[in-house]
UniProtKB/TrEMBL annotation:
<keyword id="KW-0808">Transferase</keyword>
<dbReference type="Pfam" id="PF00365">
    <property type="entry name" value="PFK"/>
</dbReference>
<dbReference type="GO" id="GO:0046872">
    <property type="term" value="F:metal ion binding"/>
</dbReference>
<dbReference type="InterPro" id="IPR035966">
    <property type="entry name" value="PKF_sf"/>
</dbReference>
<keyword id="KW-0479">Metal-binding</keyword>
<dbReference type="InterPro" id="IPR000023">
    <property type="entry name" value="Phosphofructokinase_dom"/>
</dbReference>
<protein>
    <recommendedName>
        <fullName>Phosphofructokinase domain-containing protein</fullName>
    </recommendedName>
</protein>
<dbReference type="GO" id="GO:0003872">
    <property type="term" value="F:6-phosphofructokinase activity"/>
</dbReference>
<keyword id="KW-0460">Magnesium</keyword>
<feature type="domain" description="Phosphofructokinase">
    <location>
        <begin position="76"/>
        <end position="250"/>
    </location>
</feature>
<keyword id="KW-0418">Kinase</keyword>
Amino acid sequence: MRIGVLGIDTINETKSITQAITQYASETNSVIEGLEWHTVLSELKAETLESWVRSVSEKTIIENKESFLKVIEAYDAVIVFGGSKKAVDLLSLAQVKLLFLPISILSDSSLGYDTALNEVVTNVLKVKDTISSLLYMKQRVCCVQLPGEELSDLMRDAASAVDGVVVTGGESVWMHAADYLKKKDQKGVTYSFLIINESIRPEQLGAFLQQQMDLDFKELIFDESQCMSSRPTAADRIIEKNLSQSVYEWLKSTDGTRQLTIENKEVK
């Protein structure tokens, strides 16, 4: 049996899952290969599977749809780490047995989310401790940019945890953020957190808000690597363990293509 492993915007801490795949391969004399996108060659190539799965962006898959489908159809089974519904629907067109794993820093029903939220909130609260302890004569705004281009659970939960507000859209929507800042200023609260994603350029939002009121605007930008940790939370450790078992059982079974989900840390 030839097994391929593909990561889509995935996280690093998936060692238990790759160990489960390796265990199955050892028991059945199967071949396992990690699928890695080579930008220079514009090719998806097979590499030795490591303890962590290399990641390719969903955008790359969409732009090179035919190449990806052709490569994965050469396998008996392909295990996909991460990917949105769009990626799942696209790859499901391939004539091969697929297993999709819910791994994402953006969705609260995925492996990696709890750790990402913890990393973001911990670092934002450090900033909050600093700016709330200083006396300042005008509103201080910390604009926190998180990965992704669509409204996510990570944005909503991070905003709730740090007493901030989510900002999306364009200038017509940004006026609500300006009103929010003015109300806080009137209450004597001289610092605020705005949570945005990569669809908004922080400098443009800052320039717009500074036209509405006198404020000090700072940016705090998180990329995907800054939302990960070498020490996952207990919740993510439990989810990873349960996913590992489910992957092993799927490989042993005769089940076809399947998309796993997580509910209360249990795999469905």
